[in-house]
Design brief:
- There is one protein chain.
- Strands 12, 13, 14, 15, 16, 17 and 18 form a 7-stranded mixed sheet that branches.
- The protein has helices at residues 2-25, 154-169, 197-203, 234-253, 281-292, 303-310, 329-336, 338-341, 383-387; strands at 30-36, 40-42, 46-55, 61-71, 74-76, 87-96, 100-110, 114-126, 133-147, 175-185, 207-213, 218-224, 257-266, 272-278, 294-295, 318-324, 344-351, 367-371.
- α4 (234-253) packs antiparallel against α5.
- β13 and β14 (272-278) form a beta hairpin.
- It contains 9 helices and 18 strands.
Length: 388
């Protein structure tokens, strides 16, 4: 009997001691790191999240729960998502020995474009008997861009042929300062910079350099996400963003100079998107990221006002692509004014209705309807094949 009581007392002492020890030391030298593999992926692609838990002390940790919030648009494998919230609450369990580090890689599919982050993690520890739970908040931060998947169809290729034709037909309007074509007599309208002083000294009369002409490909993309309907057509708006991404990819491949303006609101700056013209892969990625940051829940600016604030005089080599999910009269009137501004344009109308319904007769030949329901949102890109 005394031996049994002694065992109970010893067990109680051991339990109390380990409880006190774990309460005091469980969080010592305990670190967590949560990061995305890569900084950006496209919609439909698979990505990976890497969790690393480090126990830098000799005391083993029988169970550590690592909890954090992220978006439900990052669809983790074998995860149950609450459809009533935009967030996904992740809860992973680890067991660590003394001075041990564990790394776990979790795969997910990027279901929707956006800028997603992980901000802070909650660590929950327990004692050897799982009767104690203590919480430690750790500062962690990482983000990933899910870029809109570029849309590409025959309509896009046809529109590129159109824009090349528009530019080439007006190529004579721009003189190329780097293409030498010959020497001629000076005229009153010539610039002093164009004078060829060697030829002038040789002939005794003013002579100027003749320059050749070029077709400078300059394109502006105007993305109108304004929606006047009572029920917001988010699907059509997302489709329009993909169309813009498709144009960006196409113009980059053709080494064209282009700009992007949109009344969609940037989730970071809370201002409409305005990216001045440039070219190349860096410019392409800058625009992809800007499109990813558009927050459709914020009220859009009037597109006609944005256009009037941005418009430049046409010089014959500038062409505009307008993308819109709406065909309201004020917007169509804005497009009809292009002739007076000497601008060339094409309207990509993202619609779920009939091709020409509500479209002005003046705009029929300048409009390409794109069906919003024709977008395949289920295509999944194999990350392993992509990396290989």
């Amino acid at each position: 009997m005394y031996q049994f009581i002694a065992i109970l007392i010893l067990a109680a002492i051991l339990y109390t001691v380990q409880r006190v020890v774990y309460m005091k030391l469980w969080a010592k030298n305990l670190e967590v790191d949560i990061r995305f593999e890569g900084k950006e992926i496209f919609e439909g692609e698979r990505g990976r999240l890497v969790e690393t838990i480090t126990n830098g002390k000799r005391l083993p940790l029988p169970m550590i729960k690592c909890k954090f919030l992220t978006s439900r648009n990052l669809m983790f494998d074998n995860a149950t998502v609450n459809q009533n919230t935009d967030n996904y609450y992740r809860n992973d369990v680890f067991t660590l020995g003394g001075r041990e580090r564990l790394t776990r890689t979790i795969a997910f599919k990027a279901a929707k474009r956006g800028l997603y982050n992980i901000n802070n993690a909650e660590l929950v520890g327990t004692d050897m008997f799982f009767t104690l739970e203590t919480v430690l908040m750790k500062k962690v931060y990482d983000e990933i861009y899910v870029l809109p998947r570029p849309f590409n169809t025959n309509e896009f290729r046809n529109s590129l042929q159109w824009i090349n034709g528009e530019i080439k037909s007006k190529a004579h309007l721009i003189e190329d300062p780097f293409e030498f074509r010959g020497i001629r007599e000076y005229q009153p309208y010539d610039s002093m910079k164009s004078i060829n002083w060697k030829a002038t000294a040789k002939t005794g009369e003013l002579r100027v350099n003749m320059r050749d002409f070029t077709s400078q490909k300059v394109v502006r993309i105007f993305l109108n996400l304004e929606d006047e309907g009572i029920i917001k057509r988010t699907e059509a708006q997302e489709a329009a963003i993909k169309v813009a991404a498709g144009l960006v990819r196409m113009f980059t491949q053709e080494d064209m100079e282009f700009a992007l303006y949109s009344n969609g609101v940037d989730c970071l700056s809370h201002q409409p998107i305005k990216i001045k013209r440039s070219r190349g892969r860096v410019h392409e990625q800058e625009i992809y990221r800007a499109l990813a940051r558009i927050n459709l829940k914020e009220e859009t600016q009037d597109m006609a006002k944005l256009f009037s604030d941005t418009i430049e005089a046409g010089d014959g080599t500038m062409c505009d692509y307008h993308i819109s999910v709406n065909s309201y009269n004020k917007y169509q009137n804005m497009l009809e004014n292009y002739d007076s501004l000497h601008l060339s344009f094409l309207w990509l109308y993202v619609t779920s209705g009939a091709e020409t319904i509500g479209i002005s007769s003046k705009l029929q030949t300048r409009t390409i309807p794109i069906r919003s329901w024709s977008f395949d949102t289920n295509t999944e890109i194999d990350l392993d094949k992509k990396e290989a």
